[in-house]
Amino acid sequence: MAFKALAAFLSVAALQVANAALTRRVACPDGINTATNAACCSLFALRDDLQQNLFDNGECGEDVHESLRLTFHDAIGIGSFGGGGADGSIAIFEDIETAFHANAGIDEIINEQKPLVARHNLTVGDFIQFAGALGVSNCPGAPRLPAFLGRPNAVAPAPDKTVPEPFDSVDSILARFADAGNFSTVEVVWMLISHTIAAADLVDPTIPGTPFDSTPGRFDTQFFLETQLKGTLFPGTAGNQGEVQSPLGGEIRLQSDHDLARDSRTACEWQSFVNNQAKLQNRFQAVFTKMTVLGHNPDDLIDCSEVIPEPPAFTGSATFPAGFTNDDVEQACAATPFPTLATDPGPVTSVAPVPPS
């Protein structure tokens, strides 16, 4: 079903591109830009404001990582027990939702975005999803993500326990995604592509800004390689609950990522992304498109994806960090051999933390 959905999405996307070429563009009031829908014109000023005043003039840094995280934590707030999905509730009802354990630390990016929300005439849900899609466009190797307008503001907070946590079981995580938006097992893996540019401050508070892979400023496949290196489970103490000790110094690994990379239901899909940049881009664009409209009828939204810039290209290959080889892989996919990759030259080094914004 996931692949049928992806094929349908790609067919619609191709049709949209073809239709856009035949659509007469309108001049925006700024006298500079044009758009296929006049409602999208206001996003050009927001785009420039975000790039200059939140994303450090186009860097793929901490505020980009946190803005992408915010899109998910807001959108996943939906399911059989309530919630409105991608409706801005996490910021509108900040005092309630940021107190949920899974949302620890997310108040920081909400508060950084607040002045920009106040300067632009968008609903909070539209703002959060646009900021996340725009931020990712700063990351080399990323797909160009969609942006839609028309989500009404939330009228109630999402319930607790909608956001999966690092110490949740694979069964629990798969069930939560299925309940939130009928996400298939492989689509859960696709969603975790976002961890290629992720870092953690509070999973283990003794090591803030710790990245999930060795290239947190690049949207590449290193995350799927490095999570399959042999690691050690912590005993689950209060300071590092949900963490697995990565063999690569300075890198954090979530227990949930470790488990999904090794579970029989997800291991082969996980491994399939190693050194497959095209698939990485394609699948994340598809699953983000599905996530960003949770709780809404896409036919009621305006497609303003043209405002999102094309991300910088990345044409490199996945490589083992210095000192590691195929012998260090804990392979869990029995159906397909693990790719043979080169190893970076030099001595074993520690991954630097992501600097704060």
TrEMBL record:
Name of the protein this chain belongs to: Peroxidase
Enzyme class, broadest EC rank: oxidoreductase
Keywords: Calcium, Glycoprotein, Heme, Iron, Lignin degradation, Metal-binding, Oxidoreductase, Peroxidase, Signal
E.C. numbers: 1.11.1.-
Species in which this protein is naturally found: Somion occarium
Keyword Metal-binding: yes
Signal sequence residues: 1-20
Cofactor(s) the protein requires to work: Ca(2+)
Cofactor notes: Binds 2 calcium ions per subunit.
CDD domains per record: ligninase
Pfam family, one: Peroxidase_ext
InterPro entries found in the cross-reference section: Ccp1-like, Haem_peroxidase, Haem_peroxidase_sf, Ligninase, Ligninase_C, Peroxidases_AS
Family named by the database record: Belongs to the peroxidase family. Ligninase subfamily.
PANTHER family, sorted: CATALASE-PEROXIDASE, THYLAKOID LUMENAL 29 KDA PROTEIN, CHLOROPLASTIC-RELATED
Region of interest (Disordered), ranges: 338-357
Residue intervals of the Plant heme peroxidase family profile domain: 68-337
